[in-house]
Amino acid sequence: MAQNAGSDKLFGKTLDELKEIAVNLDMPRYAAGQIAGWLYGKGVASPEGMTDLPLSSRHKLAEYFETGLTPYRNVMVSADGTKKYLFPAGSGNYVEAAYIPEKKRNTLCLSTQAGCKMGCLFCMTGKQGFQGNLTAGGILNQLQSIPESKKVTNIVYMGMGEPLDNLDELLKSLEILTADWGFGMSPRRITVSTIGIMPAMRELLKRSRCHIAVSLHTPFEHERNDLMPAEKVHPFKKIIEELVSDDTSRQRRVSFEYIMFRGLNDTPAHVRELARILNGIRCRINLIRFHKIPGVPLESSEPPVMEGFRDALNKKGIIATIRQSRGEDINAACGMLSTRTV
User: Fold this and answer.
1) What angle do CA 323, 326, 328 make, to 5 degrees?
2) Whether the Cβ atoms of residue 263 and residue 297 lie closer than 8 Å to each other
3) Are residues 62 and 78 in the same domain?
4) Which of these is catalytic: 109, 116, 120, 334?
5) Closest Cα partner for 140 from 95, 99, 100, 110?
6) How many domains does the structure of the chain reveal?
7) Which of 96, 162, 169, 257 does the annotation list as catalytic?
8) 109 is catalytic
9) How deeply is 201 buried, as exposed, middle or buried, from its count of CB atoms within 10 A (0-12, 13-18, 19+)?
10) Is the peptide bond before 304 cis (omega within 30 degrees of 0)?
11) Do 61 and 89 belong together in one domain?
12) Residue 131 and residue 38 share a domain
């Protein structure tokens, strides 16, 4: 048990962890459900505010714990309504979260790490290197601490970092998001994006019913090696084998993220190979315009090329859509999140 007042954080604890805390503080185990309700349902600012707990229990909690919410440091607003929030992430590090309002949904893009180890050629986050993992509390703080928290309908783990490189905290955050005692969100409204780290992806498929989006970007191994160094350790062929064998695949949506680069991965040969390797997987492909970042010689495919690529995939029986770019003017679009200049 922590020895200093407020030295540990309640926000980000699972129900089992809260039960252990309750027992250690000589509180009834059922008090854990009450604490969870205040943390995730009501957004209480401090243990003292948990008014359905006895005063003595609130004092004990406050002696050893703080709620642990961290306010955002800055917000930028795009011309299209997208908002990018900057959060402290300990030891002088920061992460960004993007809120994307639409007519029928409001999506929040969460970060799981400060920086990233994967070093993908096209991603600005990877250019800043890796500074550290976020806790489940740090991940979900990005949801709880924005003004639009109650308006969020969908969550995507597509911000800074590789979610499966922070598996334990990712899974804890998903449990809290989807549990009745937590935020109570449907797994069908949550998508985890990954380059496909094994065996972490297998664990995610087994322990969560959320949707999964795999960063593919080309069906040819040598090209993916050049774009994504992790291909050498986590080849996409193994990723696809795992998805084919997933016995819950009909309970979740599987999608593939495909950033389109002019003259590199936008040819008829790529359409044919995608159709071949994805045969047997119920999936969709999200075609994404490349957003230019400094020092990278790649260019985005032109809109007519992207449209032709989409139509060719659809004719092959693969659902393909072109994702609308949001927040580019504030560097909040796909691949643009970075805090290395903060």
Assistant:
1) 120
2) no
3) no
4) 334
5) 110
6) 2
7) 96
8) no
9) buried
10) no
11) no
12) no
Residue 294 is predicted with a pLDDT of 84
Is residue 107 within 8 A of residue 153, CB to CB? The reply is yes
Helices (H) and strands (E) in the chain, counts: 11, 14
CA dist., res. 42 & res. 35, Å (int): 10
Q: Do residues 78 and 36 share a domain?
A: no
Residue 78 lies in a domain: yes
Compute the distance between CA of residue 188 and CA of residue 155 in angstroms, rounded to an integer.
10
Is position 334 annotated as part of the catalytic site?
A: yes
Q: How far apart are the first and last CA of the chain?
A: 35
Report the C-alpha gap between 90 and 74 in whole angstroms: 16
Which residue has 């092959």 as its token pair? Answer: 316
Tracing tokens 């909040």 back to the chain, one arrives at: 332
Q: Is the pLDDT of residue 206 over 70?
A: yes
Backbone angles phi and psi of 306, in degrees to 5: -65, -40
Residue 269, helix vs strand vs coil: helix
Residue span of the structural domain in which 20 resides: 8-66
Residue owning tokens 């903060």: 342
Residue 88 CA to residue 83 CA, distance in Å, equals: 17
CA-based nearest residue to 173, from 204, 131, 198? 204
Q: Tens digit of pLDDT for each residue in 233-263? A: 999 999 998 888 876 556 688 999 999 999 9
Task: In whole angstroms, give the CA distance from residue 30 to residue 203.
Answer: 30
> Which tens digits make up the pLDDT trace of 277-303?
998 788 999 999 998 888 888 999 999
Q: What is the pLDDT of residue 60?
A: 92
Q: If residue 65 lies in a helix (H) or strand (E), which one and from where to where?
A: strand 65-66
What does the pLDDT read at residue 64? 93
Strand-strand pairing, 113-115 and 130-133: antiparallel
- Same domain, yes or no: 203 and 167: yes
Q: How far apart are CA 332 and CA 328, in angstroms?
A: 6
- Identify the residue whose tokens are 């994967």: 118
